[in-house]
Amino acid sequence: MSSIQLYLDFKGNEESLENLIKRVIEVTTPPAARAVHTLDDDLSLEVVNGLLAYDFIYEVTISDELGSVLASGNEPRPKTSTRWITKFIAEDSRTYVARLTIPGYGDSVAGTIRFTVDVDVALAPFFERSGLILGAGMLRNAFLVILLFFAFHIMLTRPLIRLVRQMSSIDLDKPGASRIEYVADHRDDELGQLVSTTNKLLDLMELSLAKRRAVELALRRSEEHIRQIIDNLPVMVGARNRDGNYIFANKALANFVGKNTAEMQNCHVSDLLPFYLNDIARLMEIDRNVIEGEVASEVMEENFRSAGGKQVFLQTHIMPMDFYDERVALVVSTDISERKQAQFKMEFMAYHDALTNLPNRVHLVERLEHELRRARRHGYHGALLFIDLDHFKTINDSLGHPVGDEVLIQVADRLLKAVREEDLVARLSGDEFVVVLTVLDQDISAAALRAAEVGEKIRQRISEPYLYDEMELRVSGSVGIVVYPEADSTVHELIRFADTAMYQVKERGRDAIEFFNTEMADKVSQQLLMEGDLHRALEVGQFELYYQPKIDCTTLKTIGAEALLRWPHPEKGFISPVDFIPVLEASGLIVAVGEWVLEEACKSLVAWSEAGLWQPGMRLSINISPRQFRRKTFVQDVKAILDQYNLPEESLDMEITEGVVIQNIDETISTMGNLAESGVSFSLDDFGTGYSSISYLKSLPVSTLKIDRSFVRDIVDDQNDRVLVETIVTMGSLLGMDVVAEGVEEEPQLELLKNYGCHYYQGYLSSPAIPFDKFEEWLKLDGDK
Ligand SMILES: Nc1nc2c(ncn2[C@@H]2O[C@@H]3COP(=O)(O)O[C@H]4[C@@H](O)[C@H](n5cnc6c(=O)[nH]c(N)nc65)O[C@@H]4COP(=O)(O)O[C@H]3[C@H]2O)c(=O)[nH]1
């Protein structure tokens, strides 16, 4: 405002100055013109001095029309403090020139008057006023400032300072406990509002703090619960960063490696090396892959030694997890040692025999295949020894299975000690063992010699006495040997060759060693040929069923028959069942042939019964081979066939050998019981040749004992056989069983049997086995007796 005022003042001053100059010129020009006209120097000087009398005019010159100076004068310019301002806002000096004209002379110029004005001097009153205005303004403003300062201090600043002091003393942990007090006389104004708003804010802060504390507490508790859950999990949980450092581990994991959870923090995987039995570098690589997302997750098996020194198998899942601001590998491990042990055990059991822990047949076959390939590749020979214990059943039957088992264990031990470590000792079944002597010699004769030496050593070791409790037991062994590679023979053929050689030993009286030779090879190949012929025989229906009558020793009436298989070979004529039944057995064909026999017998029974030839109480026996009887589906298959035929009641009998019964007595009882329900009775064939014990005889549903024909043959001459036959008859009668004597060829034999109380017989004395038609006639004749 002062500036505007000064500016306007300055303009006004300028105008006044111009007006003044104008009047000065008006007043001065007439005398100056007169002085020029009259060339009056005094007057000119008077005019000049008159002008210089003005303090702001400091230079004056009067000239005529020719420019000659009539009079001039000047005054010194005063020094002022305002000149610099004048130069800044206007010019420092200003020159005015006025033309001098003489009245009555028209416009002709008689001369000029020139004078220069000192603008600074001319503006001196303006500067004076301006100084006054500014000074007064400053004074007023200063007064106002002081006044306002005190007013504000009292009314605003002081209350505000009090408020600030109160605010800074607020306890931030308990904002709700602090109150801001109202300032006197300011309850209803803005300060009052500030106080009440601040107090409300403090309450809100207190509330939100309380809420936050409650949330924090809940979070801490839930974190603690989760931690407890993870800690108490029966699995090991940990997290590792990409450098392999544990950033977390639960108790199970920490305990496992003998640390506590705090020690596990920042523990590096390599610190676990005393426990970790796998490749640490590989583990870190898996961690990295999982963390970097190259694989979604990884499941692996790890092998550890626990802090207690036990070997432990873990199944570990590794998966990515975001842990705070870092991506890590979450590692969850479960102890699968038990499962693993069970797996190892199962694998071991699949390849080993449970009793002796020796490799079993599966293992033997695999290993032998490998050895055979090796021997062929490197051109050397090895040998396979098939060992069967002689009369082992006697021990089992007379002393019980535990003793038998102990002997088998000791035999296994002796076999292992008799061979080199790289050789193989296996148990095939029961009392059958196989020894594979690997890498014997490149020369076959030398290899055979070496095999013979070892075979003999084994035979001797086996026949050394076995101690059980106080008893001294003796067992001998029959050893069959085959040197391999043998032509193109497979592993199974090799085993069969050695088995054949072993049987040769048995046939020659046991307790010896025998090599598989060409004669045996011929026998084997003949068996193979026969196997093919038997297949064809079954296909084209070459088999026939013959019937041998069973006769009552006293009445000589027919009480039944035994069905016997006959094979009229198209080229070789009748082949004895003694020769082809073992081949049927070995090839498994016996099952199909046995079913054919059963069906054929059923058909015959139905035919005879319909013809009225089959009297009630008569029985037709069929022979059941061990392999047939042991089949899981045997009962089911027989019942399926029986269901198809309407047989006379209790007319079918099955002959089984003692060997079948002994193998698995419980299973045998169950099979026989099942079939007995369908009206099938059982006869024990070849009785006396085995090691039957009365105890199992009592528990079996057997109705008939058949005395083997080898005892009947010499019954007349041999006292021992007589005693044996008499004993069997007496025993059978005591047990309520029928006794049938086989192979009765002569009358004296029958007489003796009758005397001993034997019920029935069969043999050439009455009739050999005869075909269906002939037996039908036999029955008719018998009926007519
Ligand atoms: N020396 C002499 N022998 C007599 C006399 N009476 C009968 N035989 C013969 O003695 C054998 C009795 O049969 P096995 O002991 O069950 O012995 C049978 C039996 O174990 C088996 N077999 C026969 N047929 C079958 C069958 O259908 N299935 C099964 N699994 N085995 C059968 O073959 C063996 C031999 O049968 P086969 O050669 O028919 O020989 C029969 C029979 O012909 C006699 O007075 N003197």
From TrEMBL:
The keyword Transcription does not apply. Residues 527-783 form the EAL domain. Its EC number is 3.1.4.52. GO terms for molecular function: cyclic-guanylate-specific phosphodiesterase activity. The chain crosses the membrane at residues 142-161. Its cofactor is Mg(2+). SUPFAM superfamilies: EAL domain-like, Nucleotide cyclase, PYP-like sensor domain (PAS domain). Gene3D superfamilies: 3.30.70.270, EAL domain (3.20.20.450), PAS domain (3.30.450.20). Keywords: c-di-GMP, Membrane, Transmembrane, Transmembrane helix. It catalyses: 3',3'-c-di-GMP + H2O = 5'-phosphoguanylyl(3'->5')guanosine + H(+). Residues 380-518 form the GGDEF domain. Residues 222-264 form the PAS domain. InterPro entries: Biofilm_reg_signaling, EAL_dom, EAL_sf, GGDEF_dom, Nucleotide_cyclase, PAS, PAS-like_dom_sf, PAS_4. GO terms for biological process: cellular response to nitric oxide. It comes from the Bacteria. This is cyclic-guanylate-specific phosphodiesterase. It comes from Simiduia aestuariiviva.
